[in-house]
Amino acid sequence: MSCCSAEEEQPYDLSREVNVEDKKLINCKAVDVNQLHPMKYKWAWEHYMNGCNNNWLPTEVPMQKDIELWKSNKLTEGERQVIMRNLGFFSTGESLVGNNIVLAIFRHVTNPEARQYLLRQAFEEAVHTHTFQYIVDSLGLDGREVFNMYHEVDSIKGKDDFVMSLTESVLDPEFSTDSVEGIQDFIKNLVGFYVIMEGIFFYSGFVMILSFHRQNRLTGIGEQFQYILRDESIHLNFGVDLINTIKAENPEAWTPKLQKEIIEMIDQAVRYEYAYACDCLPDGVLGLNSEVFEEYVQYVADRRLERIGLPAQYNSKNPFPWMSETIDLAKEKNFFETRVTEYQSAGSLEW
After folding, report:
1. Which helix (H) or strand (E) holds 325?
2. Residue 237: CB partners within 8 Å, gap ≥ 6?
3. What is the largest CA-CA distance in the chain?
4. Interior angle at CA 230, CA 290 and CA 40, nearest 5
C-alpha cells in the first residue's frame, strides 16, 4: 500500500499497487506498513545492509588487559582524564542521537527504506550506550561521575546543549515539514546530528582513544571504539545522503540564507570541539595537544561541508592520516592479541 496525501487517503486495500513516486522521503501524510517494494532509495537499503555487516556487541570484547592497566600506576593523570572525558561525552552524545532518531527524525522521514535504516541505527546507538556502561563496569569506575559529566563539565555540556538547541523546534508536537520553513528546520536538525554530532564532535574522541590502542594500551576499549567508528561512518554516509536527497527534492528550501546559517553552525561546532580538546588535553598526552586537534577538526569540518555541497572554510591538513586506514580496513587485525576480529560479512563492506 502506498503513502498518499491527506486528500487521497483511501481505505486499506491490498489490491492497490504501490507507486514508487508516492514513496516520498518526507511529507508522505499517511504512513502504514513499512512497504519496501518497489524500492525508491536504494542508497538507504545499502546503508542498512552495511550496518548489518558491522554487527557487534561490546561484551564480545575482552577487557582483562585494560583492567590490569587501569588498576596499575602506568597511566598518568592526564591520560586518565582523556579516557574519562571521552567516556563522559560519548555516553551522553550517543543517547542524544538515539533520542533524536526515535523522537524527531523517524516521525518526519516517511519513506520505508529510510525508516528501515533508522530502526537499525537506533539499535546501534543503544549498543554504543551499552558499550560505555560495559567499560565503566569493567574498569570499576563511578558511573555517576561518567554519566553526569554532561551536567558538570562545561566543554561537554556546551557541545550537547548546542546540538540539542538544533532540535527543539522539530520536537514540538505541532512541527511539520509541510512548509519551506519546516523543511529548512528539519535540514538543520539533520545537519546538527549527522554532520556535527556524529561527523565532527565524535572524531576528536576517536583519535584520542585510538591513540592509546596504537600504543598497545587499553586495547579492549580501542577495539570497541573501532567498531563504533565503523558504525558512525555509516551513520554519517546515510545522513549525508538523506540531507542531499531532501535538498534535491525540495530545492526551494536550499536557499543562500540557509546555506550561510549551516556554515555558521559548523564554524560554531568547530569552536566547541576545540574547547573540548583543550579541556581533554590541557598539557598534552600521547604526543597530542589541543593545537593539532584544532587543525584536525577544521580538516574534518571542511570534508563535511563539501559532502553537503558547501565550500570548505579552513583548508587545513589532516594531521592524523592513520584514521583513514582505521576506517578503510574491511577486516581488522587486533594487532596486540593473537586473534583476528572479523565482521559478520566483512567482505561486503565498502568505504
Report:
1. helix 322-328
2. 47
3. 70
4. 125
Residue 294 cell numbers, joined:
584544532
Name the helix (H) or strand (E) containing 117: helix 112-139
pTM (predicted TM-score): 0.86
3-state secondary structure of 253: helix
Judged against a pLDDT cut of 80, whether residue 308 lies above it is answered with yes
The DSSP secondary structure of 204-241, one letter per residue, reads HHHHHHHHHHHTTSSHHHHHHHHHHHHHHHHHHHHHHH
Please name the residue that has the C-alpha cell 518526507.
Answer: 26
pLDDT at 351 over 80: no
Measured from the Cβ of residue 202, the count of other Cβ atoms closer than 10 Å reads 25
Sign of the dihedral defined by the CA atoms of residues 75, 211, 266, 171, in that order: negative
Superfamily for the 41-348 domain: Ribonucleotide Reductase, subunit A (1.10.620.20)
Whole-angstrom distance, CA of residue 300 vs CA of residue 195: 10
C-alpha cell at 201: 564532535
Report the relative pairing of strands 332-333 and 340-341 from DSSP bridges: antiparallel
Q: Residues with catalytic annotation?
A: 134
Residue 291 grid coordinates: 593545537
Region 230-242: mean pLDDT is 96
Q: Which residues contact 34 (CB under 8 A, 6 or more apart)?
A: 112, 115, 116
Dihedral angle over CA of 211, 212, 214, 218, nearest 10: -150
Rg (the chain; Cα; Å)? 21
CB 215 within 8 A of CB 185: no
